[in-house]
Fold:
Amino acid sequence: MTCDRMEELFSAYLEGGLEIGEQRRFEDHLRSCPECADLLERMKSLTETLAGFPEVEVPPRLVERLRAIPIRRRPFRLFTELLLRPSLQPIYAAAAGLLVLVSALAFHPDGPRIRREIDRRIHLGYAQAERLVARAGGLTGELSAYTETTIDKVKNLPVLQKDTEIP
Amino acid sequence: MLVDAYSRKIFNLAYQFSGSYQEAEDLTQEIFIKLYHSLGKYDAGKNFTAWLLTLGRNHLIDQYRRTRREKTQRDDFEEHRFKAGSSADPEESLIREETRKKVWDGLDGLPEDMRMALILRDIQGHSYEEMAESLDIPLGTVKSRVNRARLQLARLLRDRQGADYDL
Structure:
C-alpha cells in the first residue's frame, strides 16, 4: 500500500470504516512507515481537539436583534405575498395583454381606421346576435305550439277516454 | 420560535467559520433575514435543520468569497469566550488551551469548502449523510473532502510548529 493510498484511508481508519483485510494492510504499512504513523497521530489529535471545541453563547443583544426581524418585516412580506399569489397571475397576464392592446390602438399610426373597423365589426356582430335572438324567439313559439298540439293529441287518444270499452 | 431553536446553532457555525465574534453576529442576522424571506420556499417534507444549514452555509461561503481580501485574521483565542471544560490539572488545561488556539488559528489556512466540511463534521458533529444533504454533494465526496481537510490542517499545523510541534 502506498503512502498516498494510506492518506486517503486515514479518516476511514480512525472512524472504524475499513474492512478487515484493508485494515490489516493499513496497519502493516503504519508499522513500516514512520511518516504515515506521525501524520495519522496528528490527524487523530486534531479531530479530538476539534470535537472538544465548546459552543459559544449567543450574545443577548443579538437575540434581541433577531427577534425584531420578523416584526419589522411582516407587513411588507404579507403585502408582497398577497401581490405575488399564483392565483393572481392570470389576472396580471390579462391586464398586461389589455394594456398592450390599448397601447397599440392609441399609438398606432392607423389608429382611427382600426377603431372604425372595430366599431363596424362590433355593430355587425351585434346585428347578427339580434337576428339570432329573433330567430330563436320564433323557434320557441313554434316549439310551444307543437308541444300544445302534441299534448292535445295525447289527451284525446281513445285509450285514455273513460267511456271507451276495452275489447 | 425559530430564534430560540436555531440562533445558537447558526451563531456558532458563523463564528467557527469566520473566526470573528462581531462578524458572526452580523452574519447570523443576515442568515435569519434570508431565512424569513425564504420560508415560503421550504418544502415541508424535507429536514428543516438540513435546509437551514444549507442556507447558512451558502451565505457564509458567499460572504467570505466577497470579502476575503478585506479579512485580516481570526479573533484571538482568548477573546472568544469559549468556556473550556474545567480540569483538575492546571498544566493539562494550559496545554489543551494552547492546542485549541493553534487549531483555531489553523482553520483560517483552509480553503472555505474544506473549512466548512471540517466544522460541520468535527466541531458540530454532523453525520456524513446530513452533510451530503445540506451541502448537496454525494456522500463519497463529503467523506473525501473531510479527509483532505483533516490532512491539510494536520500538515499545516506540523509545518507551523516545526518538528517539535506536538498536539
